[in-house]
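Incident log, support desk, overnight shift.

02:14 A customer reports that sequence design results differ from what the structure should imply. Their input is reproduced verbatim below. On-call engineer (initials T.W.) acknowledged and began investigating.
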């Protein structure tokens, strides 16, 4: 490695992508340092998918305890303690943060718990004033919630603050139509809050198949979640009793106890000194990189949400792994394949998808076959819950290859992980047909499409 530098690799940001890249590079023999100004673990572990999924688990008990009575269980004196769940979740987040730090330490990665700025070619200056040099610099600073500017916008919260609420709001308005908005709408609704979603367009989850979007909207409304479409914030006024008077375009003013915005995320690139060394940014402030995560400056790379390619934790981890292997490993450089990435929305019920939607397939391939199963899961039947699941398979009619699978229903993300392998491997509908079903399961619907 390069002895003329203090480190072979200096990583700015200890989130999922930065931690993986640093650990793997160190395993390849590189001298590595990481700077993290907040907490090791990044958005996913500290204030994103991990604590959110814990809240999702907690929210499911609201319906499970009701359904249990139909299975012979008597539930007496049930009550929900938000503070207990909140604190348990934060304790586990702290535990995971320690494990991430321990992993880096076990690989002899130096951790600087402070902000780092690029101040010259191969040069990084820490908030303490210390200056170090590195042959390669990796930026993995992630993204943050976008808060629109309007009168009273200082009164809103984001997903960051939602994990730390002192108490649950009786009425909450959630702005946005993406996965974060719909996930927290389901969580707060199950905890007994009156939830309203306000969206500036007329579509929720626009990147997902229309059939799934429509089904989630229908189920959410039955559960009591309200929806306001084609509306934007005009103002928020905090009143004497602490409630928020919200004015939305085309709507009557309405009072809420909390307003949460989930209207997108923006890359964390400000104040990193990228302009000092000429790193090229995109229109949203994202770092522009090539297929190997290299920026416009040869010795500077970037992975994860800060590049705005695919804002998913597993993608950031893959990018970090590929970067470290390619730059510091003994093998040939390789790039991450960003096509056919599976995803999930942990709504109530959850959505999972991989590949093309029906609309995308028709526009791209022309001649397709669509197979669909619309059914009530056995558990819902016994519980008397009139909530239907929907599974959908998109097939290229020219070669029988499955190009998309879309699901909404209990445990859809768990089922989709295996199904996504089949789509990535370019298997055909005939391959699924030839597979014996596991009965009785919801997943068997995937091999019983007619």
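02:41 Re-run completed on a clean worker. Output:
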């Amino acid at each position: 490695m390069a002895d003329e530098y203090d480190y072979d690799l200096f990583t700015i940001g200890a989130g999922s992508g930065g931690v993986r890249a640093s650990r793997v590079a160190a395993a390849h023999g590189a001298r590595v340092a990481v700077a993290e100004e907040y907490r090791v673990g990044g958005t996913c572990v500290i204030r994103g998918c991990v604590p959110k999924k814990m809240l999702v688990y907690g929210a499911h008990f609201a319906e499970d305890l009701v359904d249990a009575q139909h299975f012979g269980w008597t539930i007496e004196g049930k009550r929900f303690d938000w503070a207990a769940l909140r604190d348990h979740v934060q304790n586990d987040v702290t535990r995971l943060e320690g494990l991430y730090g321990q992993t880096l330490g076990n690989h002899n990665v130096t951790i600087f718990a402070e902000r780092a700025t690029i101040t010259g070619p191969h040069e990084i200056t820490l908030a303490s004033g210390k200056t170090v040099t590195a042959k390669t610099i990796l930026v993995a600073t992630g993204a943050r919630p976008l808060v629109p500017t309007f009168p009273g916008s200082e009164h809103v919260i984001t997903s960051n603050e939602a994990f730390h609420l002192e108490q649950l709001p009786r009425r909450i308005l959630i702005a946005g139509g993406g996965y974060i908005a719909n996930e927290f709408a389901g969580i707060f609704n199950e905890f007994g809050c009156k939830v309203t979603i306000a969206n500036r367009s007329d579509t929720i989850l626009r990147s997902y198949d229309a059939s799934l979007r429509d089904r989630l909207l229908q189920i959410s409304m039955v559960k009591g979640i309200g929806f306001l479409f084609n509306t934007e914030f005009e103002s928020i006024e905090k009143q004497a009793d602490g409630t928020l008077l919200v004015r939305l375009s085309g709507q009557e003013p309405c009072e809420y106890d909390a307003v949460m915005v989930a209207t997108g995320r923006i890359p964390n690139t400000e104040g990193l000194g990228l302009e000092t060394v000429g790193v090229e940014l995109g229109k949203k402030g994202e770092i522009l990189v090539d297929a190997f995560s290299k920026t416009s400056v040869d010795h500077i790379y970037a992975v994860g949400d800060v590049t705005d390619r695919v804002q998913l934790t597993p993608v950031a981890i893959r990018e970090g792994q590929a970067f470290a292997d390619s730059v510091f490993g003994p093998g040939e450089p390789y790039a991450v394949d960003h096509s056919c990435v599976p995803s999930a929305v942990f709504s109530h019920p959850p959505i999972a998808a991989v590949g093309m939607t029906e609309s995308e397939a028709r526009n791209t391939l022309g001649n397709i076959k669509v197979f669909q199963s619309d059914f009530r899961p056995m558990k819902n039947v016994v519980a008397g819950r009139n909530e239907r699941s929907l599974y959908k398979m998109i097939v290229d009619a020219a070669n029988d290859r499955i190009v998309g699978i879309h699901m909404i229903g209990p445990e859809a993300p768990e089922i989709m992980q295996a199904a996504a392998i089949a789509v990535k491997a370019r298997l055909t509908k005939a391959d699924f047909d030839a597979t014996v079903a596991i009965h009785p399961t919801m997943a068997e619907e995937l091999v019983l499409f007619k």
